Amino acid sequence: MSIERRFDVSLIAEMALREKQVQQVYRPFIAVHKWFARRPGTLFRGLLLSEFVDAPLHESFYRSHDLADLRVADPFMGGGTPLVEANRIGCDVEGLDINPMSAWIVREELTSIDLAAYERAARELRNSLDAKVGHYYRTLCPLYRDVEVPVKSFLWVKVISCENCGHSVDLFPGYVLARNKRHPTNVLVCPECGDLNDTEDAATPGRAMVKFRVRAADHQAAFLV
Question: Which residues contact 144 (CB under 8 A, 6 or more apart)?
Answer without folding.
Answer: none
